[in-house]
């Protein structure tokens, strides 16, 4: 009996060690606790993805980060060192990547989508530093993750609670930048912005506004789950290998398809 117990334990340990995992890299709209103390009562959609997957989900999103600051702080390197071959990594930034004005805030990216485009900015210490574009940081992360055998998925940022004529408006430039980075690297792209916008338009402005208890960016728990469901719908309507890991609950998320 002791030997049988040991064999079962060893088998389970091996399964845990060798099974695939989904890792998440993003900002507060994905992270545990959402906007934190600045946005109480909010949560990120990454906290609700696991209930729709048949493999574990590890949420490494951090509030306030951009593609650049997640890179500069070594968080992508930590993730790259952590993943094993066959793991999935969902990368979603954009909310904090915009220009910060005359003084660099440590998060802004150089304007544009050129991989080699740079901008010189002045930080709070008066030092001049060179920064790169959004696609530069995303593409480098994708390339390094692939070298480890991981499977990166580039996802566009989520919408804010901003409406025009009763509909969620077009996405900011970082939606297109995410698609560009995915296209250049051959990574799967999920247009999360469009799938969430579709869900929001269906629910209506009054219902969706209730998902934003503090500001127009950070969702409540209920709203975060809607955003997670929209990502799952994006997987199911695409060609990512991760769609095969969507469980029965995920298969039943709202099914209205966004036009390809």
TrEMBL record:
Origin superkingdom: Eukaryota
Key words of the record: Hydrolase, Signal
An MF annotation (GO) of this entry: hydrolase activity, acting on ester bonds
InterPro entries: GDSL (IPR001087), RhgT-like (IPR037459), SGNH_hydro_sf (IPR036514)
Signal peptide residue numbers: 1-19
Similarity comment: family membership: Belongs to the 'GDSL' lipolytic enzyme family.
Protein name according to UniProt: Rhamnogalacturonan acetylesterase
Biological source species: Leucocoprinus leucothites
């Amino acid at each position: 009996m002791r030997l049988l117990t040991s064999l079962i334990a060893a088998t389970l340990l091996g399964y845990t060690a060798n099974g695939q995992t989904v890792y998440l890299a993003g900002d507060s709209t994905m992270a545990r606790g959402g906007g934190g103390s600045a946005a109480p009562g909010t949560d990120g959609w990454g906290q609700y993805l696991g209930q729709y997957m048949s493999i574990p989900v590890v949420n490494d999103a951090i509030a306030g980060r951009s593609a650049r600051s997640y890179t500069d702080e070594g968080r992508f390197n930590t993730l790259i060192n952590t993943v094993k071959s066959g793991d999935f990594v969902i990368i979603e930034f954009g909310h904090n990547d915009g220009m910060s004005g005359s003084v660099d805030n440590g998060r802004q990216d150089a304007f544009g989508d050129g991989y080699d485009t740079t901008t010189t900015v002045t930080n709070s210490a008066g030092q001049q530093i060179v920064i790169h574009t959004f696609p530069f940081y995303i593409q480098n992360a994708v390339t390094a993750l692939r070298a480890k055998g991981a499977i990166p998925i580039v996802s566009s940022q989520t919408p804010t609670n901003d409406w025009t004529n009763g509909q969620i408006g077009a996405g900011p430039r970082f939606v297109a930048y995410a698609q560009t980075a995915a296209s250049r690297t051959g990574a799967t792209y999920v247009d999360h912005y469009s799938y969430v916008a579709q869900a929001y338009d269906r629910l209506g402005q009054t219902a969706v506004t209730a998902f934003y208890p503090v500001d127009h960016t950070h969702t409540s728990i209920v709203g975060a789950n809607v955003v997670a469901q929209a990502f799952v719908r994006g997987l199911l309507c695409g060609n990512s290998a991760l769609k095969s890991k969507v469980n029965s609950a995920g298969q039943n998320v709202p099914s209205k398809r966004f036009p390809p």
